[in-house]
Amino acid sequence: MADQKDKVVLAYSGGLDTSVCIKWLQEEKGLDVIAVVGDVGQEHEGLEKIKQKALKAGALDCLVVDMRDTFAKEYLSKALAANALYENKYPLVSALSRPLISKHLVDAAHKFGAKHIAHGCTGKGNDQVRFEASITMLDPDIEILAPVREWDLKTRPEEIEWALAHGVEVPATKKSPYSIDDNLWGRAIECGVLEDPWTEPPADIYTMTSDPVQAPDEPQYVELSFSRGIPYMIDGVQKSFLGIVYALNEVAGAHGFGRIDMIENRLVGVKSRECYEAPAALALIQAHKALEDLVLEREVLHFKLGMEQAWASAVYNGQWFSPLKEAIDAFMASTQRCLYGTVRLKFYKGTCTVVGRKSAYSLYDYGLATYDADDSFDHGAARGFIQLHSLSTKTWAANRRQEGAPAELFDARDQVGPLTRGKYEDVTPIWRQVADAEAKAVATTE
Ligand code: ARG
Known about the structure:
binds arginine, 5-stranded antiparallel sheet, globular, 5-stranded parallel sheet
């Protein structure tokens, strides 16, 4: 019997890169390859077809895993709780799928007794970091291989030549000039003409959203109901979170909502021009925030904003399984306990506007807010409140306004009339101390 080869589990997409990876891992590393294809809601040519491709390229086995439901329930739900937008714009599309795929890669490695896991990411992006950081946190003993980072097939023609020479099927269709990654939460489009930040994205890069100019002339209203911060009903019809994401991608996409064109800071230190379309993600985050505005106590809401940024950065940077991200999840979960209610959205020509919100846990008090006769706000209390609220800064201002105080210590002086800095002899002893200290400090730095 021939020697048993070591095994490697490969994150397989069906594209040329990962197909070449299969052969390369066999030939260059002498490993048996188990391919894993994750369905996270991306556009694809057919999962069975992808599986056959992996086997044809020489994989020992190919697991096709439908990850969509888990993706929605365990990943997108947490992103929504955190209103996660990296750099206040990007809803973390790719950053959310990598840890889930990693989990399945590690599971497959354990199942097949593989010591290695491989991915097809380049050395310049965030995705390599996310895969490797996730895999390492799930099983520190697994050795990670990144063929694309290692081989010297610099250009696509070189890669095709290698593929043909090694019997790897090469796609017949011309490759799109863009690098695309997509899933339920949206679609990322990079490269090609987009690498010039001054060039407007060509119309054909978008597939989930229609051009707002061509969107329907009639607005469309959508009502979303939430339970513990997760949407469970759309226009009065109960659906799974996954079903709601699909439905909203359709509606919001048809109205041309959800496009993003941004310059983004990658973890590896490179600024890149990124185009995204994320119709459901952006609409859901907007609706979710509107409900939080109504339900969350002010200090919780304000504190949460900072936590949201921390969560988004951690996940962007591949820290999904880290203790920090887990701790922030616990905070987020606590804020979502009373997040029940309904939000009404209006889609129109590339926009999504919140036009209504209601909740049994609403902290909006009509009596406190109204300027009508029903007003129950204690206006008299405002006077004392402002006195004490301003006491500390009032004390500060009075100190700086004293005769002889150095004018530069009180930058607001221009607004209250000029304060002149009296002659040294005229100044009170306390301010002479300040002047002496200043003179000494200047002398020592000269
Ligand atoms: N810049 C985005 C991110 O880092 C998108 C990455 C898309 N990946 C890709 N292979 N095209 O999350």
